[in-house]
Specification:
The complex is a heterodimer of chains A (109) and B (120). Chain A has 109 residues and is mainly β. Helix content of chain A is 0%, strand content 43%. The N and C termini of chain A lie far apart (36 Å). The termini of chain B are far apart. In chain B, strands 2, 4, 5, 6, 9, 10 and 11 form a seven-stranded mixed beta sheet that branches. Chain B has a four-stranded antiparallel beta sheet with strand order 1-3-8-7, with no helix packed on it.
């Protein structure tokens, strides 16, 4: 089965840049999507197809994907960005289902 | 505007069968390309995909849980039902339904989730 690995936690000061990685075998060949989940709430899509943003998501959220690593970048981090973040791909081959990453807790210091 | 809401029991005994219903509005599951999925999240843990049903009735399951899961749709009622058999305490989780945007590979709208506890 296809596995997506994320760092358990990332800490960042307000106004700085947070980078959250998502590692997977040749993930650069798959579209990657990112979700933000605040405590007690449902996930919210923040980036889709590697780098596109849904309506209403600030430009501070951006994404990239190449090789074996996809990255979600949050620029000019705000206190309200503190949340868990999950990457997601659609597995290929026999893994034709949604695969989620292990999740990263972003803490704003 | 798409809305989804999960409903079902909050407490289930081990070995029992869980039936959850997702009631939705804002899209039609009979429209070409649409899909609706179920995802769960044990307390303090990561998201885990369970099942997806497409507009044409095609289905996808998490292969590790496939033998225990069934997903069905009632287009006339705008509902999707997930059944999971032989519940175990490890199945305690918040269960979400989510909309798969037409001809895409991501989930663009989610329900609020429903917490299901498996305990005797």
């Amino acid at each position: 089965s296809y596995v997506l690995t994320q760092p358990p936690s990332v800490s960042v000061a307000p106004g700085q840049t947070a980078r959250i990685t998502c590692g997977g075998n040749n993930i650069g060949g798959k579209p990657v999507h990112w979700y933000q989940q605040k405590p007690g709430q449902a996930p919210v899509l923040v980036v889709y197809d590697d780098r596109d943003r849904p309506s209403g998501i600030p430009e501070r959220f951006s994404g990239s994907n190449s090789g074996n690593t996809a990255t979600l970048t949050i620029s000019r981090v705000e206190v309200g960005d503190e949340a868990d973040y999950y990457c997601q791909v659609w597995g290929g081959g026999i893994d034709r289902y949604y695969v989620f990453g292990t999740g990263t807790k972003v803490t704003v210091l | 505007q798409i809305t989804l809401k999960e409903s079902g029991p909050t407490l289930v005994k081990p070995t029992q069968t869980l039936t959850l219903t997702c009631s939705f509005s804002g899209f039609s599951l009979s429209r070409n390309g649409e899909g609706l999925g179920w995802i769960r999240q044990p307390p303090g843990k990561a998201l885990e995909f369970l099942a997806l049903i497409y507009w044409d009735g095609d289905k996808r399951y998490n292969p590790f849980l496939k033998s225990r899961l069934t997903i069905t749709k009632d287009t006339s009622k705008n509902q999707v039902v997930l059944t999971m058999t032989n519940l175990d305490p490890v199945d305690t989780a918040t269960y979400y339904c989510a909309h798969r945007r037409r001809n895409t590979l991501y989930l663009d709208s989610w329900g609020q989730g429903t917490l299901v506890t498996v305990s005797s």
